[in-house]
Design goal:
The protein has 378 residues and is an alpha+beta fold. It is built from eleven helices and nine strands. The strands form two sheets. Strands 1, 2, 3, 4, 5, 6 and 7 form a seven-stranded mixed sheet that branches. A two-stranded antiparallel ribbon has the order 8-9. Helix 9 runs antiparallel to helix 10 and helix 9 packs antiparallel against helix 11. The protein is globular, with a radius of gyration of 21 Å.
Length: 378
């Protein structure tokens, strides 16, 4: 027996509002034009999301201009962003930078940056991964932080930095003999070089960031930020899984509509058993993605230690399920699914790219085993 979902009226209204905004302001033709611009995002939509709908501050504390909601609400926003494939620095700014600032708990930094993030006046990002590709603090070693004339200087290189070209604040995560630390860096400083990368996902800009004795400001405790970074990555994994679930749900709807419309041998292709099986498998994947994401969001809202485990589960399952759905959507659309004019390839690109963002499914499986073992023995 199927148990119906229990969705509050408030959550339904939030989803409807966000979906209506993106359907109006970022339909596919507009999205395609935006990804070809220098900025890579629609600045008017960015400010509308912040000013008129309050999405930037939805999960931020009220004292910083936010609404004080939790992961269950912010997850809905990420799902709708994934559904519309909105080109935006929202993930980098909200899921990464803002979350890291909250986790670090540095009041001076929070007062300086979070109100501007909530109002949409500040685009921020986090630089973690290095040449080895790992996002885990313990695997970092290529960026050095040294004290100089009473301040800090960074030297080295970070890669896979989201939205670095448009960011006005860069939070660099550095691990050395003292532990893991976080530094605020101005991307416009002469000691910072941003090198845009050619990436598979056209709607999500990535760059390399090189530091050459770049001035930096320590946020939080020197050597004491590993736990804050780990918690930020757990919340970011949930946000990414929500985006993937939203994208996959849209693809299933698109494929069902096409299977009803496209005729072959005098009948809709949806009448053929092979197509029915594909659609059923895709729908089953989406249902499970939705279940995993909801469970993780509820866990995050309850602020329990279980988030480290369920976020890893969400990252692994949703990454692989989204890729399966994206690949099948191209198959169902046949020859047209491979063309530039059809949106299927844009979602396929996002599926493969997001599968490795924050770390590969294999890496997260290893982390999941460690977290489960730690829960039993630590």
């Amino acid at each position: 027996m199927l148990i119906p979902d229990v969705v509050t009226e408030e959550h339904s209204e939030l989803r409807a509002t966000v979906r209506r905004l993106f359907e109006t302001r970022s339909p596919e033709p507009v999205m395609r034009k935006v990804i070809e611009t220098d900025a890579g995002y629609d600045s008017e939509l960015w400010h509308q999301m912040a000013d008129q709908v309050g999405l930037h501050g939805l999960g931020l504390p009220e004292r910083y201009g936010g609404s004080g909601y939790g992961s269950e609400e912010t997850t809905i926003v990420f799902e709708e962003i994934g559904r519309a494939l909105v080109p935006s620095p929202f993930f980098a700014t909200i899921a990464l930078a803002a979350r890291l600032l909250v986790e670090l708990g540095d009041e001076d930094a929070d007062d300086r940056y979070l109100p501007r993030i909530a109002s949409g006046d500040l685009i921020a990002t986090v630089a973690i991964a290095e040449s080895a590709g790992s996002w885990q603090p313990r695997d970092l070693s290529e960026v050095a932080a040294v004290q100089h004339d009473g301040g800090w200087r960074l030297s080295g290189e970070k890669t896979t930095v989201l939205s670095a070209e448009t960011a006005e604040l860069l939070l660099a995560v550095v691990t050395d003999n003292h532990g893991t630390s976080v530094f605020a860096v101005d991307p416009a400083d002469s000691g910072v070089t941003i090198v845009p990368l050619t990436t598979l996902d056209l709607a999500q800009r990535q760059s390399k960031v090189r530091f050459d004795h770049a001035p930096a400001t320590l946020i939080g405790v020197h050597g004491g930020s590993a736990a804050a970074v780990a918690s930020m990555l757990d919340h970011a994994a949930l946000a990414l899984a929500a985006e993937q679930a939203g994208s996959a749900a849209f693809l299933v709807e698109m494929c069902v509509d096409y299977a009803k419309l496209r005729h072959q041998f005098g009948q809709p292709i949806g009448a053929f058993q092979a197509i029915k099986h594909k659609l059923a498998d895709m729908a089953f994947d989406v249902e499970r993605m939705d279940s995993v994401v909801r469970h993780a969001a509820t866990t995050a809202a309850a602020d329990t230690s279980e988030l480290a485990i369920v976020a890893s589960i969400a990252k692994v399952f949703c990454s692989e399920a989204f890729f399966r759905v994206a690949a099948e959507s191209i198959q169902i659309h046949g020859g047209i699914g491979f063309t530039w004019e059809h949106p299927a390839h844009l979602y396929f690109r996002r599926a493969k790219s997001s599968e490795y963002l924050l770390g590969s499914p294999g890496k997260y499986r290893d982390l999941l085993l460690e977290k489960i073992a730690c829960r039993s023995d630590c």
